[in-house]
Every structure is written in structure tokens, then in C-alpha cells.
Write a structure and sequence with these properties.
By secondary structure, the chain is mostly helical. The protein is built from 7 helices and 3 strands. The protein has helices at about 5-20, 25-40, 45-50, 55-70, 90-120, 130-150, 155-165; strands at about 45, 70-75, 85. Helix 1 crosses helix 2 (about 25-40), helix 3 packs across helix 4 (about 55-70) and helix 5 (about 90-120) runs antiparallel to helix 6 (about 130-150). It is extended.
């Protein structure tokens, strides 16, 4: 039995596709990623098409998108002229690449716009106070979030794992914190 034919592999691929739509990712893109993640060897586009019953154009688009995120890469097999593809299987590496790309595509442009708006609003005496205040708060929040991300992303993986496992208990380490559970 091929991996793609196993019912649990199919269930994972279908679910990953559904989750992708919840995260704002095209279903086909998420399914191609799931298939490549599960595969134990590089797959060429035609195999992906037949395994997922997708049009070649959908698979090509999905592969480009996944390569853009840095979670799928093209590899060459000796003696085969076709391109083959593999997914990143280190989950931490995959997570950090996705977050880094989402930040670049979504957060950075938002901060740039908020920066511009906040600067203009400082000099606009006709702007309603709540507009100035709320844009300013949003700008500060998004900038703080981006700065936190930049500091955390360079931590070693074992430190990140420990931090995640601590969860809310990390508050015990913060002076003055009310969360002592």
C-alpha cells in the first residue's frame, strides 16, 4: 500500500487542507504540504497531482507558494530530469519559517502603515482624539509584538521548547506578577 492510500494519511491530508483554509491558506496548498510532509522520499509534481487528484496548475501554484514560505524545497534526483520536492520535517524549523514569512507579509506592512498614520495624525489638528489615540495604541501594540518576536526568534530551540512548556507558569518569574499558580 502506498502512503497516500493509507486511510490515516488521507485523513491527515484532508484535515491539514481544512486547517489551511482556517489559517488563510488555499486548501490545495495545505494538502500538497501535508503530502510532502508525510512522504519519505522526494515527490515529483505528477505524483503529487495523482495522489491528491489535483490539476497540474494547482500543484504548480501550491509548490511555488510553499517554496516561498521556505517549507518545501526543490531537489534533483540523479538520472531524472524532473524536479522533485521535499518538505521541511523539523517542526520547529517549519514553524519559525512560516511565522517569519507571515510577519514579513502581514505584520511588517501593517506596522509601516501605522507608523505613517501615527506620524500624520500627530500633525492633524482636525483628527478626532479617539482616532489618534487608537491608531497610536495599535501602532505601539504591533511594534511591541514585532520587537518581542525578533527577540524570541533568535533563542535556541531548547530554550523555546522550555518556554512553551512553562506556559503560564513563566509569570512566576516576573517580579510583581499576580499569577503565582
Amino acid at each position: 500500500m502506498r502512503l497516500f492510500d493509507h486511510p490515516d494519511a488521507k485523513a491527515f491530508i484532508l484535515h491539514w487542507g481544512e486547517m489551511g483554509t482556517q489559517w488563510g491558506v488555499n486548501r490545495s496548498v495545505a494538502q500538497v504540504h501535508a503530502l510532502l510532509y508525510l512522504a519519505d522520499s522526494p515527490l515529483e509534481a505528477e505524483n503529487i497531482c495523482s495522489a491528491l487528484v489535483l490539476a497540474r496548475s494547482n500543484v504548480s501554484t501550491a509548490l511555488k507558494e510553499l517554496q516561498g514560505y521556505g517549507i518545501v524545497r526543490r531537489v534533483h534526483i540523479e538520472g531524472d530530469r524532473r524536479d522533485h520536492f521535499v518538505a521541511e520535517t523539523d517542526l520547529w524549523e517549519m514553524l519559525t519559517r512560516i511565522v517569519q514569512e507571515r510577519k514579513r507579509r502581514e505584520i511588517d506592512p501593517t506596522i509601516a502603515l501605522l507608523d505613517e498614520l501615527a506620524e500624520r495624525l500627530k500633525h492633524d489638528g482636525n483628527a478626532p482624539a479617539q482616532l489618534r489615540e487608537r491608531i497610536g495604541r495599535m501602532h505601539e501594540f504591533m511594534s511591541t509584538l514585532a520587537n518581542w518576536y525578533e527577540q524570541v526568534r533568535v533563542l535556541p530551540k531548547p530554550t523555546l521548547v522550555t518556554l512553551m512548556k512553562l506556559g503560564g507558569r513563566v509569570a512566576k518569574l516576573i517580579p510583581g506578577s499576580k499569577n503565582k499558580s
